[in-house]
Each structure stands twice: as structure tokens, then as C-alpha cells.
Amino acid sequence: MASISLFEASIVFFSFxxxxxxxxxxxxxxxxxxxxxxxxxxxxxxxxxxxxxLVRLNRIYDGVEVLENYNMTLPFKGPWFTGMDILVTVDPAxxxxxxxxxxxxxxxxxxxxxxxxxxxNGLLNSDSERCNNLRKxxxxxxxxxxFQTFSIFATRSKLKDELLPLFDHFADEGTVVDFxxxxxxxxxxxxxxxxxxxxxxxxxxxxANDEFVNALEDVEVAIIYRHMMPxxxxxxxxxMGLGQEKKLIEADAVFDRLCGKYVTDKRDEIRHHSxxxxxxxxxxxxxxxxxxxPIDDKLLRDVIVGFILAARDTIASTLTWFFWLLSENPNxxxxxxxxxxxxxxxxxxxxxxxxxxxxxxxxxxxLHGALCESMRLYPPVPFQRRSAIKPDVLPSGHKVDANSTIxxxxxxxxxxxxxxxxxxxxFKPERWVSATGGIRHEPSHKFFSFNAGPRACLxxxxxxxxxxxxxxxxxxxxxxxVVKGQKIEPFSGLILxxxxxxxxxxxxx
Length: 509
Ligand code: HEM
Prior knowledge:
The chain crosses the membrane at residues 6-24. By secondary structure, the chain is of the alpha+beta class.
């Protein structure tokens, strides 16, 4: 009897706490007894370590201090009866075990698929056979010369025809610009073009908001909420259409409507043979040459949403953090300029320079290192989640129960001294340059920003090419000044954005 009343009391208290924090009080703006939980999250009766999680809600993946104290693996205890116990790890040996050597035991799983349900049956949400089929399809597309040419064309023409003229305008007017917003618009436009839909032209002086972008932003926040809420609570919110769940329902409708239109238009275009045979966009590839039979409109909708998430915000996030890091490390900027001067010299008189051969970008070893270093410290995908099928023991000795959840805090991992040495917090592109001057490779279970093993990112090469293309053009044409005194901090979402953006000014070189 006593235990029942304790249980009831805890549920009432817990529900009140959650409703207060998430539904009544605006999230992210409260400070509780923060210091207490900084290094060792207490395991409270009934509430487990949940109060510690709440006080660090605005920097959820930043568990460097805690994880160092726990030797890189923390068995997080959620409130009783909520199924929120999670094993958090940043130990490269564990990651190699989970992602590669015992890969078949660690899946995304039904809980992941439920939390990420808005991504439907796309690759992000798939396991086993569906995952293998979709990966094959993506791989074929990413290796197809016509798709590669099209995607490079989309990036280069957006850069030349819109981004650089826009920066010229900002430089002439002395406008203070949110660099992150500009990058997100740029990559949104290039991903929509790459899909094969018409250019949304979100990158213009007017900077109008696109409803697809707004919906994506709502989804990123809402999914993080689902990670931090007991399942029964977000399910209840969903049923009642409240708060973040309401936004998810609305975002889902926006995705259905817009993707439905992209697919219908593309099917018409293919029927009328009106697309250029030299280029292949994503939808044409999946509809005409893909390995998936049959490919229905719903699956195409899921592929589109997944592709935009994979290709748009990851690139925009990397560019934003990279340019901020350059502003903080002028010596690195000088070395990149030297490398550009030596390898891709440009004549000051020739504005109409022909584009580089992509192979020339491979000569930029130091720039490559600087981009990797930026993604080590600020990984665009800041956490990974897996579920164990069978019980297991990790190399660190931690036991894993069947169906339990494991989270890998990629953001904290990049800052761990035990992984990267005493200078882990320093931005040092030299870390990536070998003694012979080539690129130094780190194993993917250590440099985990692109994931590892059979589920590693399929777009890594395309991403590096796109990043280098944009960075080279910007650095050769402009000096960027980051506005002093602004607060720079990450935003707790699916993708590591800057919470307040990055305000900069431009001057022409
Ligand atoms: C800086 C840029 C990028 C980073 C840091 C990055 C990182 C990642 C990560 C961490 C994953 C694993 C996600 C998960 O399993 O939950 C992933 C998956 C994936 N990425 Fe990337 N990505 C980038 C750019 C791109 C681009 C440009 C493409 C375009 C084709 C792409 C295509 C994919 C695909 C198709 C997957 C799904 C793989 C799977 O689930 O098996 N990525 N990426």
C-alpha cells in the first residue's frame, strides 16, 4: 500500500514538473540549482538523474565534464517506470563495437522509428532490408556521373549567380548579416534543386521565409523534446495536439503537401521526356533508375525529407561554425590564404575565372584539416542513438540489456582529452596533416562526425567537395568580420546550429 502511494505521489510530482517546464513555462529560460549537477548528476529516488538533465537542457549534448568523470561512459538513470534509462558513451572502443564489429546487434529500432516517425520509411529511419535497399539506391545515385555533375552545377551556379552577388551587395551597403541564415538558405535552395524541384529562391535580398524551412526547424526542436520527455507524455500531447506535438503535426502536413507536388511535377516531366539527359536529379534517379520497385509517392516523400535533412543543415552548420572558428583563429585563416595562393592562384583582373577542376580542391590539405577540425569540435549531427537487440557487454565493461538505448554524444566526444589529447579544445588543423604533408586519417569511430561502419554517411565526399567549393570562393573574394560581443552557443536540436546565429560584415578583397 505504502509503495503504491509513493508511486502515485512520484507520478503526480513528475507530471507536474514536466507540465510546468514544457507546457506552462517557456523552455530553455530557467536556471535551477545548476552548479550542483555540473559534474556528477545525482541519482535521486524516483526522479533518477532527470533533474540533472533538466538543468542542462540548453546544452544537452555537452557532457564533457560528466563523461570525463565517468571514464567516457555514463549509465544515465531516468525517472522510475518511464523507460528513460540510457547508456551514454563517447568511448571510441565502444563506438567501434556498436557501429562496426557488433553492428547487427545495434539497430535504430522501433523506439527510434517512433520518435522519428515524421521521416517515415526513409533511410534515416530504416533498419535491415529496407535500409540495405535504400543505401544501395543512394550509393548508385551518388556514384552516377550525371547526378554528380548536376549537384556540382547546382552548387556552383547558386554560388556564382546568387550568393556572391548577394555578398557584394552586403559589402557595398555595409550590412550586418546573419551568416548562418544565409548558409541555411543557400543549402536549402541547392538541396531542393538537387532533388529536381524548382528553385525556391529563398536566397534573395528580401530573405523571405519558406514554409518547408519553417517546418524543418519545428521538427528538429520537437524531436529533441521527444527524447527528453517520457513516452506517455509526448504521446498524450500528440493525442491532444498540444505544444511541440502540434507543430509536428503541422510540419508533417507541410511535408506531405510540398513533397506531393514535387513528385507529381517530376512524374509529369518524366512522362513528357522534358528533362535534360546529361543531368540527373534525385527524383528522376529514384523514379527512373532506382533499385526500388515499386517506388510509391509516399516513399518518395520520405526520401525527399530525409535528403534535405542530410544535405542541407549539415553543410550550413559546418560553414557557420567554420567561419566563426576562423575569426577566433586568425593564424589558421592566414595559412589557408597561403595555401589558396599557392595552389589556386587567381588573377586580380580576371573576375570571369573559369571554375576549378574539382581535382584541384584535393591539393588543399590544410583547408581539409581545418574543416575536419571544425566538425570535430562542432559536429553537425551532435548525437547518435542505437538500440540493442540482444544483451551484450561493451569493451568498457558496461552491460547492455536487450532493447535498451545507447546514445553517443558526438559533440562531447570531439572535446574529450582522453580521445584527442590535452589540446582537445584547441582548433588545430595541423592535427590532420601527416608528417609527409598529406591528409592524416583518423578512424571513423574516433572522428565520428560522419558516423562509422555500415551506416556511415553516404554523402561525405559530396559534402567535402561542396564545403571546399563554397569556402574557397568566399575566402578568395571577401574578408569577413564577425561582429564583436555576440553570444555564441550551440542550440540543442537534431543539428548543431548556433543558437543566436552569427552576425558578420563583408568587405571585398
Ligand atoms: C558536413 C556534412 C555532413 C555530415 C557531417 C553528415 C553526417 C552524417 C551522419 C552523422 C549520418 C548518420 C545519421 C544517422 O544514422 O542517424 C549521416 C547519414 C547520411 N548522410 Fe550525411 N552528412 C553530411 C552531408 C551529407 C550530404 C551532403 C549528403 C548527400 C547526399 C548526405 C547523405 C547521407 C545519407 C544518405 C545518410 C544516411 C545513411 C544511413 O542511414 O545509412 N550527408 N550523415
